[in-house]
């Protein structure tokens, strides 16, 4: 099964969170599991906050790209299209909110499960849960905005 990120074109595959071409990045992969999107990531020992627990910025980063990837996957699904078909659907982060419920144990695989709360043409809101060993440790909300064709060009 291909992940939504596997359909990103080369020029959009350099993101630190989800770009398959970024050798220093997380290279996350997001898949459908029924009505939920799922990303799994095993942190390294250096992803430490305090010994034994995962750095919160890593969790935010995973929620971020899980959210934008889920937004793209959900849009293709809502339109009844295969991912990667034209016109390409890509999202950037408009806002990112993370609520840390309890410390996230460092070592086991982290699972992020997302649900679509709102889906419009230009804006998709993804709610995420972060789980380790079945324990919910954080919640995320990503407002994903359709990437403008001229993204970054006016800066
Ligand atoms: C695809 C491969 C790359 C994936 C990368 C994924 C993760 C990333 O790190 S992306 C990088 C970080 N993000 C950015 O740099 C984005 C910078 N911001 C921008 O470019 C623009 O502000 C952008 C595109 C988000 C919004 O553009 P803008 O023209 O203002 O949108 P606009 O038409 O006003 O708003 C559309 C809708 O989005 C909403 N919206 C826009 N910005 C936000 C925001 N920051 N928070 C919440 N909602 C927002 C608006 O309220 C509007 O909603 P509604 O339709 O309900 O009224």
From TrEMBL:
GO terms for cellular component: cytoplasm; membrane. It holds the Pfam family 4HBT. Keywords: Apoptosis, Cell membrane, Cell projection, Cytoplasm, Fatty acid metabolism, Hydrolase, Lipid metabolism, Membrane, Transit peptide. InterPro entries: HotDog_dom_sf (IPR029069), THEM4/THEM5_acyl-CoA_thioest (IPR052365), Thioestr_dom (IPR006683). It catalyses: hexadecanoyl-CoA + H2O = hexadecanoate + CoA + H(+); dodecanoyl-CoA + H2O = dodecanoate + CoA + H(+); tetradecanoyl-CoA + H2O = tetradecanoate + CoA + H(+); (9Z)-octadecenoyl-CoA + H2O = (9Z)-octadecenoate + CoA + H(+). It is a peripheral membrane protein. Residues 52-131 form the Thioesterase domain. Belongs to the THEM4/THEM5 thioesterase family. This is Acyl-coenzyme A thioesterase THEM4.
């Amino acid at each position: 099964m291909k992940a939504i990120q596997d359909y990103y074109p080369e020029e959009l595959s350099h993101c630190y969170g989800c770009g398959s071409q970024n050798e220093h990045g997380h290279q996350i992969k997001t898949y459908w599991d029924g009505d939920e999107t799922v990303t799994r990531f095993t942190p390294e020992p250096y992803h430490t906050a305090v010994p034994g627990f995962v750095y919160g910025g890593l969790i935010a980063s995973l929620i971020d790209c899980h959210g934008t990837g889920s937004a793209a996957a959900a849009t293709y699904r809502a339109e009844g299209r295969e991912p990667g078909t034209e016109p390409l659907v890509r999202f950037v982060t408009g806002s990112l909110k993370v609520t840390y419920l309890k410390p996230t144990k460092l070592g086991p695989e982290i699972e992020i499960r997302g649900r679509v709360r709102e889906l419009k043409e230009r804006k998709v809101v993804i709610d995420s849960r972060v789980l380790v060993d079945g324990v919910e440790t954080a919640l995320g909300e990503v407002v994903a905005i359709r990437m403008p064709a001229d993204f970054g060009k006016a800066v």
